[in-house]
Write a structure and sequence with these properties.
Layout lengths: L9 H27 L2 H12 L3 E10 L5 E11 L10 E11 L1 H5 L3 E9 L2 E9 L3 E12 L6 H4 L3 E2 L1 E14 L5 E3 L5 E8 L3 E3 L13 H7 L8 E3 L1 E9 L2 E10 L3 E10 L8 E10 L1 H6 L1 H8 L11 E8 L4 E3 L98
Antiparallel strand pairs: 1-2, 2-3, 3-4, 4-5, 5-6, 6-8, 7-11, 8-9, 8-10, 10-13, 11-12, 13-14, 14-15, 15-16, 16-17, 17-18
């Protein structure tokens, strides 16, 4: 049986006609806007915005047939070094597809769908920004780490293919100052980073730059530390963001060149730079690395970090994000291990028993107390620098190591002695 639609009356036909004109006009406007949009001006504006920190090169910006879609081809970002010893890093994207969500834009949300081709890999996902929230969902697969800005994070280049996943839900709320901004205390998200196999840190030419707070080590590390190559068989790291805390939940590495263990926690603050960091880095090179790359193996010990009972160097992380202190001290799960027996986490019990005070015989006469000898209080030691300290000996102006002061020779207490002048008066 054929479905018969009701025959609209004259008024309904008039309404439908106006609705049809409105829809046709909107569709025509959208496609006309897409065809007439000045994409070259957008390219120039992007280059202008990024020119302060990057040398930007964009081959072309082409419009897609679907409204709101555009293709950026041959995008290259080269960092601008601020110091003579810094090395520029190039970030290259073969093709970047940007799909603006026009329907979402009508509801007050700027939504961008990305598909970036970087070498054999892709970065895909969406970014949505509105007055209520910021939402990011990105994944990357088969990405060449040499084409990514890894040098800025590690201090040395990296090679090999990596993959990652990143999710963030960040609400916007009114602050105490009356402004609307991101509320990191209510943010939720997660991130994963993995190198499935055959990654290398370092290229054998770039020196490792280490920021140290200890003045005695600044001159040593100022020109960088010789660093060769460290091979990583596999790496997997994940972190979680919720309930106002950011925590590294898993960090696994396998390498014949050494070990690396990371413990990291951050208590978020509304001002992200004031978020408090607590963590521990434990690392060491292997005998194979010492044989192949002796300078790289030596770089692990030149940090000034102490060697723990687990045969790993320890660096404790502490303080706000803006000024995280790297302290050369024991930390992590081995901090409570006994140094004499590192295989156990419980210290040996103390078997010392304090003897009872014996009763004094009645016929024993207690000798009279003698005046105590005056011994000057030695000066307090100078505080050490915060951060990693190599405990270098101090030298005098003539280049010789001063002899430590000795305590004065006790005065025999055979009878009543007067205290030195000025004492007790």
């Amino acid at each position: 049986m054929a479905l018969r639609l009701p025959n609209p009356g004259p008024r309904m036909r008039k309404v439908l006609r106006y609705v049809g004109f409105a829809v046709l006009g909107l569709v025509t406007f959208v496609f006309a806007f897409q065809m007439a949009f000045p994409f070259d001006r957008v390219k120039d504006k992007v280059i202008e915005l990024l020119s302060e920190k990057y040398e930007v090169s964009i081959g072309s910006v082409d419009r897609g047939f679907v409204p709101g879609r555009m293709y950026w081809k041959a995008v290259s970002l080269r960092t601008r070094p601020t110091k003579a010893e810094e090395v520029a890093t190039t970030f290259y994207i073969e093709q970047l597809e940007v799909d603006l969500g026009l329907l979402a834009l009508l509801h007050g949300t700027a939504a961008v769908k990305l598909d970036a081709k970087i070498g054999p890999g892709h970065i895909k996902g969406t970014i949505a920004i509105s007055t209520q929230r910021t939402a990011i969902d990105l994944t990357g697969d088969d990405l060449p780490s040499a084409s990514l800005p890894v040098r800025e994070a590690l201090g040395v280049p990296m090679s090999g293919k990596i993959r990652f996943a990143f999710e963030l839900e960040l609400p916007n709320e009114k602050t105490k100052a009356g402004k609307v901004g991101p509320n990191w205390l209510k943010a939720e998200g997660s991130a994963e980073l993995a190198c499935p196999s055959s990654c290398t840190v370092g290229d054998g030419k770039t020196k490792l730059k280490v920021n140290v707070a200890n003045k005695s080590q600044q001159a040593f590390a100022e020109n960088g530390i010789d660093f060769g190559k460290v091979n990583i068989d596999s790496l997997f790291a994940s972190l979680e963001l919720k309930d106002g805390k950011l925590e590294v939940t898993k960090f696994d590495t396998k390498s014949g060149d050494g070990e690396l263990h990371v413990d990291f926690n951050m208590a978020l603050n509304q001002d992200l730079g004031q978020s408090l960091v607590t963590g521990c880095l434990r690392f060491n090179g292997s005998a194979a690395l010492l044989k192949r790359e002796p300078k790289t193996h030596a770089a692990f010990s030149t940090t000034g970090a102490p060697l723990g009972p687990d045969n790993l160097f320890h660096i404790k992380l502490d303080g706000p994000v803006k000024q995280v202190r790297r302290l050369g001290m024991m930390c992590g799960p081995t901090v409570n291990k006994n140094m004499d027996n590192p295989g156990k986490t419980t210290a040996r019990p103390n078997l010392t028993v304090t003897p009872e005070t014996p009763a004094k015989p009645a016929d024993v006469v207690t000798p009279p107390q003698q005046t105590p000898t005056y011994v000057p209080t030695p000066p307090s030691p100078m505080p050490e620098d915060a951060g990693v300290d190599m405990h270098m000996p101090q030298t005098g102006s003539n280049g010789e190591t001063p002899t430590p002061a000795t305590a004065p020779t006790p005065i025999p207490t055979g009878g009543s002695m007067e205290p030195p002048p000025g004492v007790g008066q």
